[in-house]
Amino acid sequence: MIRKLNFKGCNCYLIDDSGKTYLVDTGTPGNLKRAKKCIGNLDGIILTHAHYDHAGSAFEISEFFSCEVYAHIAEHPYLEGRGEFQFNGFVGRMIKRLESLRPMKLIQAEDVEKLRLREFDVVHVPGHTPGSIMLLKGNEAIVGDLIRLRKKRFIAGEYVVRPSSRNFNWNQSEYVKSLEKLGNLTPLKVYPGHGVSITLERSFMEGLGVRRR
Ligand SMILES: [Zn+2]
Ligand SMILES: [Zn+2]
Protein backbone atom coordinates (compact mmCIF):
# COMPACT_ATOMS: atom_id res chain seq x y z
CA MET A 1 0.00 0.00 0.00
CA ILE A 2 1.18 3.48 -0.92
CA ARG A 3 -1.10 6.29 0.22
CA LYS A 4 -0.48 9.93 -0.60
CA LEU A 5 -1.02 12.38 2.27
CA ASN A 6 -1.96 16.01 2.08
CA PHE A 7 1.09 17.65 3.62
CA LYS A 8 2.66 21.01 2.81
CA GLY A 9 5.97 21.22 0.94
CA CYS A 10 6.11 17.95 -0.97
CA ASN A 11 4.16 14.77 -1.58
CA CYS A 12 4.40 12.54 1.49
CA TYR A 13 3.36 8.90 1.42
CA LEU A 14 2.25 6.39 4.00
CA ILE A 15 3.41 2.88 3.20
CA ASP A 16 2.67 -0.49 4.72
CA ASP A 17 5.52 -2.96 4.88
CA SER A 18 4.35 -6.33 6.24
CA GLY A 19 2.17 -4.71 8.87
CA LYS A 20 4.53 -1.88 9.73
CA THR A 21 3.65 1.68 8.82
CA TYR A 22 6.22 4.15 7.57
CA LEU A 23 5.92 7.77 6.56
CA VAL A 24 7.98 8.59 3.48
CA ASP A 25 9.04 12.26 3.56
CA THR A 26 7.56 14.89 5.84
CA GLY A 27 7.26 18.14 3.87
CA THR A 28 8.26 21.57 5.16
CA PRO A 29 8.18 22.38 8.92
CA GLY A 30 4.69 22.52 10.45
CA ASN A 31 3.10 19.29 9.22
CA LEU A 32 2.66 17.60 12.62
CA LYS A 33 -0.96 18.77 12.85
CA ARG A 34 -1.74 17.11 9.52
CA ALA A 35 0.17 13.98 10.52
CA LYS A 36 -1.85 13.61 13.75
CA LYS A 37 -5.08 13.77 11.75
CA CYS A 38 -4.32 10.97 9.32
CA ILE A 39 -1.75 8.72 11.02
CA GLY A 40 -2.63 6.38 13.88
CA ASN A 41 0.73 4.89 14.67
CA LEU A 42 4.07 5.09 12.97
CA ASP A 43 6.96 2.61 12.97
CA GLY A 44 9.38 5.01 11.35
CA ILE A 45 9.99 7.91 8.99
CA ILE A 46 11.94 7.38 5.78
CA LEU A 47 13.42 10.37 3.98
CA THR A 48 14.08 10.16 0.23
CA HIS A 49 16.67 12.90 0.81
CA ALA A 50 17.50 15.68 3.26
CA HIS A 51 16.16 18.74 1.44
CA TYR A 52 14.12 21.14 3.54
CA ASP A 53 10.86 20.48 1.69
CA HIS A 54 11.12 16.74 2.46
CA ALA A 55 12.80 16.62 5.89
CA GLY A 56 11.28 19.80 7.37
CA SER A 57 8.77 18.11 9.68
CA ALA A 58 10.78 14.95 10.40
CA PHE A 59 11.85 16.11 13.86
CA GLU A 60 8.40 17.10 15.13
CA ILE A 61 6.64 14.04 13.69
CA SER A 62 9.25 11.56 14.93
CA GLU A 63 9.10 13.10 18.40
CA PHE A 64 5.33 12.91 18.60
CA PHE A 65 5.13 9.29 17.37
CA SER A 66 8.38 8.29 19.17
CA CYS A 67 9.87 6.72 16.08
CA GLU A 68 13.21 6.77 14.28
CA VAL A 69 14.06 8.73 11.15
CA TYR A 70 15.81 6.74 8.41
CA ALA A 71 17.87 8.20 5.58
CA HIS A 72 20.82 7.15 3.45
CA ILE A 73 24.06 7.70 5.37
CA ALA A 74 25.27 10.21 2.77
CA GLU A 75 22.38 12.47 3.83
CA HIS A 76 23.10 12.33 7.57
CA PRO A 77 25.56 15.26 7.61
CA TYR A 78 22.88 17.53 6.14
CA LEU A 79 20.26 16.37 8.61
CA GLU A 80 22.65 16.82 11.52
CA GLY A 81 23.69 20.31 10.45
CA ARG A 82 27.26 19.32 9.49
CA GLY A 83 26.74 20.01 5.80
CA GLU A 84 24.85 22.50 3.70
CA PHE A 85 23.29 22.01 0.27
CA GLN A 86 24.08 24.39 -2.56
CA PHE A 87 21.21 26.11 -4.30
CA ASN A 88 22.21 28.18 -7.28
CA GLY A 89 20.37 30.69 -9.42
CA PHE A 90 17.73 33.21 -8.49
CA VAL A 91 15.15 30.68 -7.32
CA GLY A 92 17.78 28.83 -5.33
CA ARG A 93 18.79 31.97 -3.46
CA MET A 94 15.16 32.73 -2.74
CA ILE A 95 14.60 29.23 -1.34
CA LYS A 96 17.65 29.57 0.93
CA ARG A 97 16.27 32.86 2.24
CA LEU A 98 12.88 31.36 2.99
CA GLU A 99 14.48 28.39 4.75
CA SER A 100 16.44 30.65 7.06
CA LEU A 101 13.22 32.33 8.22
CA ARG A 102 11.95 29.01 9.55
CA PRO A 103 14.93 26.74 10.02
CA MET A 104 14.64 22.98 9.97
CA LYS A 105 15.25 21.22 13.28
CA LEU A 106 18.33 19.00 13.33
CA ILE A 107 17.73 15.28 13.06
CA GLN A 108 19.70 12.27 14.26
CA ALA A 109 18.89 9.73 11.56
CA GLU A 110 19.45 5.99 11.27
CA ASP A 111 20.84 4.26 8.17
CA VAL A 112 17.91 3.41 5.89
CA GLU A 113 19.84 0.51 4.35
CA LYS A 114 19.92 -1.19 7.74
CA LEU A 115 16.15 -0.90 8.12
CA ARG A 116 15.60 -4.08 6.06
CA LEU A 117 12.13 -3.46 4.71
CA ARG A 118 10.39 -6.65 3.64
CA GLU A 119 8.36 -5.45 0.65
CA PHE A 120 10.29 -2.43 -0.57
CA ASP A 121 13.81 -2.19 -1.95
CA VAL A 122 15.84 0.88 -1.04
CA VAL A 123 17.59 1.96 -4.24
CA HIS A 124 20.40 4.51 -4.00
CA VAL A 125 19.94 7.14 -6.73
CA PRO A 126 22.60 9.79 -6.04
CA GLY A 127 22.78 13.03 -8.01
CA HIS A 128 19.98 15.28 -6.82
CA THR A 129 21.69 14.87 -3.45
CA PRO A 130 24.47 12.40 -2.49
CA GLY A 131 22.17 10.09 -0.59
CA SER A 132 18.91 10.30 -2.53
CA ILE A 133 16.98 7.04 -2.50
CA MET A 134 13.88 5.63 -4.07
CA LEU A 135 11.64 2.92 -2.66
CA LEU A 136 10.80 0.20 -5.13
CA LYS A 137 8.05 -2.38 -4.82
CA GLY A 138 7.29 -4.46 -7.90
CA ASN A 139 6.41 -2.00 -10.63
CA GLU A 140 5.78 0.92 -8.28
CA ALA A 141 8.31 3.37 -6.89
CA ILE A 142 8.43 6.39 -4.63
CA VAL A 143 11.11 8.43 -6.36
CA GLY A 144 11.61 11.60 -4.29
CA ASP A 145 13.01 14.40 -6.45
CA LEU A 146 14.58 12.16 -9.10
CA ILE A 147 11.92 13.43 -11.48
CA ARG A 148 9.01 15.80 -11.08
CA LEU A 149 5.62 15.90 -12.75
CA ARG A 150 4.55 19.30 -13.94
CA LYS A 151 1.18 20.30 -15.23
CA LYS A 152 1.26 21.32 -18.85
CA ARG A 153 0.14 24.89 -19.06
CA PHE A 154 -3.33 25.49 -20.47
CA ILE A 155 -4.00 21.80 -21.09
CA ALA A 156 -6.10 20.34 -18.32
CA GLY A 157 -5.20 16.93 -17.00
CA GLU A 158 -1.96 16.55 -18.91
CA TYR A 159 1.37 16.29 -17.22
CA VAL A 160 4.94 16.47 -18.36
CA VAL A 161 7.88 14.69 -16.76
CA ARG A 162 10.66 17.10 -15.83
CA PRO A 163 14.16 16.46 -14.57
CA SER A 164 15.14 17.99 -11.27
CA SER A 165 16.70 21.44 -11.78
CA ARG A 166 20.48 21.31 -12.25
CA ASN A 167 20.68 24.38 -10.01
CA PHE A 168 19.59 22.18 -7.11
CA ASN A 169 21.45 19.02 -8.09
CA TRP A 170 24.52 18.03 -6.12
CA ASN A 171 26.20 16.17 -8.99
CA GLN A 172 24.77 16.36 -12.51
CA SER A 173 26.59 13.37 -14.04
CA GLU A 174 25.63 11.14 -11.09
CA TYR A 175 22.11 12.46 -11.50
CA VAL A 176 21.95 11.40 -15.14
CA LYS A 177 23.21 7.92 -14.21
CA SER A 178 20.43 7.63 -11.65
CA LEU A 179 17.87 8.69 -14.25
CA GLU A 180 19.15 5.90 -16.48
CA LYS A 181 18.73 3.48 -13.59
CA LEU A 182 15.12 4.65 -13.35
CA GLY A 183 14.70 4.29 -17.11
CA ASN A 184 15.80 0.64 -16.91
CA LEU A 185 12.98 -0.10 -14.47
CA THR A 186 10.20 1.14 -16.76
CA PRO A 187 7.31 0.73 -17.21
CA LEU A 188 6.96 1.86 -13.65
CA LYS A 189 4.27 3.65 -11.69
CA VAL A 190 6.07 6.55 -10.05
CA TYR A 191 5.11 8.49 -6.94
CA PRO A 192 7.13 11.71 -7.17
CA GLY A 193 7.98 14.26 -4.49
CA HIS A 194 6.22 16.92 -6.55
CA GLY A 195 3.31 16.45 -8.95
CA VAL A 196 1.01 13.52 -9.67
CA SER A 197 1.63 9.80 -10.02
CA ILE A 198 1.87 8.42 -13.52
CA THR A 199 3.10 5.27 -15.22
CA LEU A 200 6.46 6.05 -16.70
CA GLU A 201 7.42 4.48 -20.02
CA ARG A 202 10.98 4.03 -21.29
CA SER A 203 10.48 6.88 -23.76
CA PHE A 204 10.38 9.46 -20.95
CA MET A 205 14.18 9.75 -21.09
CA GLU A 206 14.12 11.19 -24.63
CA GLY A 207 11.67 13.88 -23.63
CA LEU A 208 13.77 15.06 -20.69
CA GLY A 209 16.67 16.53 -22.60
CA VAL A 210 18.99 16.52 -19.58
CA ARG A 211 22.53 17.73 -19.86
CA ARG A 212 25.16 15.50 -18.39
CA ARG A 213 27.24 18.22 -16.80
ZN1 LIG B 1 15.08 17.88 -3.41
ZN1 LIG C 1 11.55 18.50 -3.35
Largest sheet: 6 strands, mixed
The radius of gyration computed from the alpha-carbon positions, rounded to a whole number of angstroms, is 16 Å
Bound molecules: zinc ion
- Seen as an oligomer or otherwise, the chain set is single chain
Helix content: 10-25%
Q: What name does CATH use for the topology?
A: Metallo-beta-lactamase, Chain A
- What value does the average pLDDT take? 92
What features would you describe in this structure?
The protein has helices at 32-38, 52-55, 58-65, 76-79, 89-101, 172-183, 204-208; strands spanning 2-5, 12-17, 20-24, 44-46, 69-71, 110-111, 121-124, 133-137, 140-144, 147-151, 159-163, 188-192, 198-200. It starts with a strand and ends in a 5-residue tail after the last helix. It is of the alpha/beta class and 213 residues long. The longest helix has 13 residues, at 89-101. A hairpin with a 5-residue loop joins strand 12 (188-192) and strand 13. The protein has one domain: Metallo-beta-lactamase, Chain A (4-Layer Sandwich), CATH 3.60.15.10. The strands form three sheets. The protein has a six-stranded mixed sheet with strand order 1-2-3-4-5-6. It has a five-stranded mixed sheet with strand order 7-8-9-12-13, with no helix packed on it. Strands 10-11 form a two-stranded antiparallel sheet. It is globular and about 45 Å long. It is built from seven helices and 13 strands.
